Amino acid sequence: MKSKAEKSKVEVKLVNIGDASEATGISQKMIRHYESHGLLGNLPRTDNGYRVYDDNALHTLTFIRKARDMGFGIAEIGKLVELWHNRRRSSATVKKMAEANVNELQQRIEALQAMQRSLQDLIKQCAGDNRPGCPILDDLSGKAKKAAKAKK
Question: pLDDT tens digit string along 95-122?
Answer without folding.
Answer: 999 999 999 999 999 999 999 999 999 9
